[in-house]
Design brief:
The complex is a heterodimer of chains A (114) and B (113). Chain A is 0% helix and 56% strand. By secondary structure, chain A is mostly beta strands. In chain A, the strands form two sheets. In chain A, strands 2, 4, 5, 6, 9, 10 and 11 form a seven-stranded mixed beta sheet that branches. Chain A has a four-stranded antiparallel beta sheet with strand order 1-3-8-7, with no helix packed on it. Chain A is built from no helices and eleven strands. Helices cover 0% and strands 56% of the residues of chain B. Chain B is built from no helices and eleven strands. Chain B is globular, with a radius of gyration of 14 Å. Chain B starts with a strand and ends with a strand. The chains are: A mainly beta (114), B mainly beta (113). The A-B interface holds A 31, 33, 35, 40-45, 48, 50, 56, 58-59, 90, 94-96, 98-103, 105-108 and B 1, 6, 9, 32, 34, 42-46, 49, 89, 93, 97-106.
């Protein structure tokens, strides 16, 4: 059973703070993803990683960076949090083999920036 | 790039009725179309998917149809039950592989007893 965990369910930060969101998967998946979920906008891809130390920008990377030093861990970093980054953040992973596309999601982190 | 549009944004049905959610995609090279269900306060989970070499797929009360020519696919739920109430997301595999999915904006389905 695939398990994807995120470091916090709820987080409150102040404008300008550096914020780290951590995601860990335990199924040796190659691919990992960070999304933000906002009402009416669905799941928008921020960054994804297809291998250790490899990353690619998604659709809304501005204001975010990522780190993948180990295969099982993918971190999302908000360099200087702003109020428009208040959102639900979802991490996901997938196997990475050709034709194996199912993504397994973490429980989400609801971030509030005040 | 790939774009996925989903309609309607909200859907309200009576228990026992059918529900249909429709999505269109832009990239004719897309070959994988999953549907995810997200119950309130929970994570999205895959409920059914279809690949481009198949026109229809069923799993008990849910089915997905794909029209590659028109570039649209639909989720059909029959005999709806209150536990079907959730947000449903369609998606299509994005360009350049990497297993990147492009999601629709979601449909909030409410099934009333």
């Amino acid at each position: 059973d695939v398990k994807v965990t995120q470091s916090s369910r709820y987080l409150v930060k102040r404008t300008g703070e550096k914020v780290f969101l951590e995601c860990v998967q335990d199924m040796d998946h190659e691919n990992m993803f960070w999304y933000r979920q906002d009402p009416g906008l669905g799941l928008r891809l921020i960054y994804f990683s297809y291998d250790v130390k490899m990353k690619e920008k998604g659709d809304i990377p501005e204001g975010y960076s990522v780190s993948r030093e180990k295969k099982e861990r993918f971190s999302l970093i908000l360099e200087s949090a702003s109020t428009n980054q208040t959102s639900m953040y979802l991490c996901a992973s997938s196997l990475g083999l050709a034709g194996s596309y199912e993504q397994y999601f973490g429980p989400g982190t609801r971030l509030t920036v005040t | 790039g790939e774009n996925v549009e989903q309609h309607p944004s909200t859907l309200s049905v009576q228990e026992g009725d059918s529900a249909v959610i429709k999505c269109t995609y832009s990239d004719s090279a897309s070959n994988y179309f999953p549907w995810y269900k997200q119950e309130l306060g929970k994570r999205p989970q895959l409920i059914i998917d279809i690949r481009s070499n198949v026109g229809e797929k069923k799993d008990q009360r849910i089915a997905v149809t794909l029209n590659k020519t028109a570039k649209h696919f639909s989720l059909h739920i029959t005999e709806t039950q209150p536990e079907d109430s959730a947000v449903y997301f369609c998606a299509a595999i994005g360009p350049r592989g990497y297993n990147k999915l492009i999601f629709g904006a979601g449909t909030r389905l409410a099934v009333h007893p």
